[in-house]
Amino acid sequence: MVAEQRHRHRRRGSTSPTGSPSPPLAPSHLDAQGRRVFELTAKSGRHDFGSGHAADTWGFDGDYLGPTLRAAKGEQVLVNVHNSLGETTTVHWHGMHLPAAMDGGPHQPIAPGTTWSPTWTIKQPAATLWYHPHPHGDTAQHVYRGLAGMFILDDPAAPVALPDEYGVDDIPVIVQDRAFDGDSLDEGRSLLAGTGILGDTIVVNGTVAPFLDVTTSLVRLRVLNASNARPFNFRFATGGSSPGSAPTAGCWRPRSRPHTCSSRRVSERRSSSGYGRAIGWCCAARRSTSAATWCRTAWFGGEDRFDVLELRGAAQLRASAGVPAGLVEIERLPPSSAVTSRDFSLTSETINGSAMSMERVDVTATLGTVEVWSITNQDGAPHDFHLHDVQFQVLGAKVLAWKDTVFVPAGDTVRIIMRFADYADPGVPYMFHCHLLYHEDQGMMGQFVVVRPGEQASLHRH
Ligand SMILES: [Cu+2]
Q1: What CATH number was assigned to the domain covering residues 170-318?
Q2: CA 16 to ligand 1 centroid distance, Å
Q3: Helices (H) and strands (E) in the chain, counts
Q4: CATH code of domain 16-154
Q5: Sequence ranges of the chain with CATH classification 2.60.40.420
Q6: How far apart are CA 5 and CA 10, in angstroms?
Q7: Ligand 1 midpoint to CA 183 (Å)
Q8: How far is the CA of 379 from the centre of ligand 1 (A)?
Q9: 297 alpha carbon to ligand 1 midpoint, in Å?
Q10: To the nearest whole number, what is the mean pLDDT of the chain?
């Protein structure tokens, strides 16, 4: 244990750590049309989180979380999503560039006992994405109960020389905070927090107090913050159990070259990739605060510190290749290429003063054009802005990267730039919204439609 923990954040029950196995890779097969076909079933179950917690949960194929889907750029995928829950849900492919009708937002409900079968071609660079429900008004509850999984995209034409043995030196790290009421998941804290549930127990890959056995000198961690509301500023605790083994870490986004840093904010409700030289060290999370903002940040979890994942190095580590000098090429979108600028104000669980309506189109974007969106948080609370369909770049950011979600601190403005490419459908919208799931459910969400030049949006009726 390296990070301090306040008494109210001390782990419950036994603190003997348990292993944190990677979620299994989802099996798939190629059908007669050459499509890579996956099966996913949303179901209820009972999951042992370790440390004495066995709770009623939901999962895909299992009792909690879901298998990791993996596909390559250029492949057409087909996912048969079966709903064996007692209520309607959806499955959204977070960060995926795909047609609106395949997006899995509130417009693609999966009724109990039915199957939804979206199919699309992977047209984006290698990425660590995820999937989770997106039913309007119920997203927080469905994700909290355990419906989430990773979706890894590879690009065979642009290989990156990072560790790539899944579960051995290429590790999914799905981080969630959970609150327990006895052994049950506590779902009743939303109204108290203002941001939705802030749990006092950290769960990684569905395990409390986890550790990871490391056998190679370099590991790649694919860190996914799948919490409902909590932002993290992950850092590596130095001075681990092996003398002189302070890790180096860096490279948390698809970017052109390795980048060394001591901490990485994953406040954004999505995933990042990182690597570290792993020799017996811990990984801790906290958010820095200043005195002036103490009240606010404490209220939203900013004073909390947690140990997240202990990496236990084997006595003998298999030597890995070195850190590559280059990673991927990223085309910078210049603001001068934008044909449209839009302003979005986030306040009081609305965007530009309106709560989400499935009957209203808030933005109509034209296929093939670049836009700049200026997002202002007018609240005293933090928000996370998430855009479906296309990845964007943050103007003025220190590091060039493709992102699908951006943290917008209280009172701040963030400007993002994106190009709407490949897919237009005047009748089916994509969503943009705060990715604090409680805010999203309350209505801090809007709809955008991508049309061909000269076309008008006209929503399909439900
Ligand atoms: Cu929000």
Answers
A1: 2.60.40.420
A2: 35
A3: 4, 34
A4: 2.60.40.420
A5: 16-154, 170-318, 335-451
A6: 6
A7: 29
A8: 9
A9: 14
A10: 84
Whether the CB-CB separation of 177 and 198 falls below 8 Å is answered with: yes
pLDDT beyond 60 at 279: no
C-alpha of residue 442 to centroid of ligand 1, in Å? 9
In angstroms, the first-to-last Cα distance of the chain is 53
Cα–ligand 1 centroid distance for 352 (angstroms): 13
CA of 349 to the centre of ligand 1 (A): 7
Residue 13, phi-psi category: left (phi > 0), alpha (psi -120 to 50), beta (remainder): left
How confident is the model over 173-192, as pLDDT tens digits?
A: 999 999 998 889 988 765 55
Alpha carbon of 1 to ligand 1 centroid (Å): 32
Least confident of 95-109, 237-251, 266-280: 266-280
Cβ-count burial of 189 within 10 angstroms (0-12 exposed, 13-18 middle, 19+ buried)?
Answer: middle
- How far is Cα 450 from Cα 111, in angstroms, rounded to an integer? 27
Centroid of ligand 1 to alpha carbon of 217 (angstroms) = 39
Alpha-carbon span 451 to 428, nearest angstrom? 10
Q: What's the CA-to-centroid distance between 166 and ligand 1, angstroms? A: 33
Backbone angles phi and psi of 30, in degrees to 5: -95, 130
Architecture of the domain whose range is 335-451: Sandwich (2.60)
* Ligand 1 center from residue 307 Cα (angstroms): 25
Distance CA 368, CA 84 (A): 39
- Give the E-state strand segments of 31-182 in sequence order: 36-50, 53-60, 69-72, 76-83, 92-94, 115-116, 119-121, 127-132, 149-154, 170-178, 180-181
Cα of 133 from ligand 1 centre, angstroms: 17
Exposed (0-12), middle (13-18) or buried (19+): which is 330, by Cβ within 10 Å? middle
- Chain-centroid distance of CA 236 in Å reads 20
Q: Distance, CA 443 to ligand 1 centroid (Å)?
A: 10
Please give the distance, rounded to the nearest whole angstrom, from the Cα atom of residue 24 to the centre of ligand 1. 32
Report CA(435)–ligand 1 centroid distance (Å): 6
DSSP helix/strand/coil, 394: strand
Q: How far, in Å, from the CA of 249 to the mean position of ligand 1? A: 30
Q: What letter would DSSP give residue 166?
A: B
Could you tell me the pTM of the whole model?
Answer: 0.88
More confident residue, 2 or 341: 341
Bridge partners for 29 per DSSP: 37
> Torsion angle of alpha carbons 347, 348, 349, 353, nearest 10°?
-60
| Tokens (6 digits) for 248 | 């180096």
For residue 178, how far is its CA from the centre of ligand 1 (angstroms)?
Answer: 19
Contact 429, 107 (CB under 8 A): yes
User: 17 CA to middle of ligand 1, Å?
Assistant: 33
